[in-house]
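Protein entry
_____________
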Amino acid sequence: MNKEILLSFHTNIAATANPNTQNGCVVAVGGFDGVHIGHLSLIKALTDQAKRLSLPAVVFMFDYFDNPKNGNQMLLSPNLGASILMDNGVDIVLTAPFSKIKSVSATDFVTEFLYKGLGAKSVICGYDFRFGNNREGDSTLISNLLSGKGVSVITPPPVLENGTPVSATLIRNLISKGDIKQANRLLCHSFGFVNPVVHGAKLGRTLGFPTVNQQYPQTMVKPPYGVYLTTVKIEGENYYGITNFGVKPTVSAGEVPTCETYIFDYNGDCYGKVARLYFLDFIRPEQKFASVEQLKEQIEKDKSYALKLLAEGERL
């Protein structure tokens, strides 16, 4: 096994002038789907150990976007995971396609990649981490293979929510039910995605509520169709707004869901620009109105309610 299997390589230049693993590293390994608070405990153990050993903090994560079993259930759009991890002190993020690495034997993965390839001096993984062909590998196998080589294996305990370990599955279920606030609390970031702003029908402009339109990533778990309090980040600035996620039954009744966001206090031209949309709270289900005038009246109510939430302290 060699580094050619890697799909992408990210470095945090802000963390160190020239991060590399030439002299070894501390590596955390896993899926990191969504990067939730359970993952943060692993990252804290990783960065603490890296500081103790004066070595780069490396995350090796599996890219599940090419795994058909995951369907449309991802918690992050592509490449966001790496940036979130580096925001939390990771120096290097290595991402390998799950479809290519799933058939590698657990022993080869540990000895040929983690030990020989990366030069791991310490390995951090979750209590339930499984890897390798037929999921034959776990933290015990890593320890058995590497402890004699002077490599420590650290397995932090799970982070619990009402007695249940925080997991990507738990958070997916919350999002699917529309419990965005709870999902965001368990994530270390607000649920959302990054996509370009595209042209829409421009109906919102005629109603007095100009909107920006974005395609919703097909790979991601979907919240219920409805109106949400959101934040849009454009060119480094955050703006609050309300987003209709769905098929707009009053005006178009399309089949492909989109996000149409009315941004408060924004008058710029953002067509073609990349924007990140964060979901903060659920306001109401999507519904079909008898007329465009009724829709306009409801948007006014949605805006008032969103501003009330913001005044009560709900923030990104």
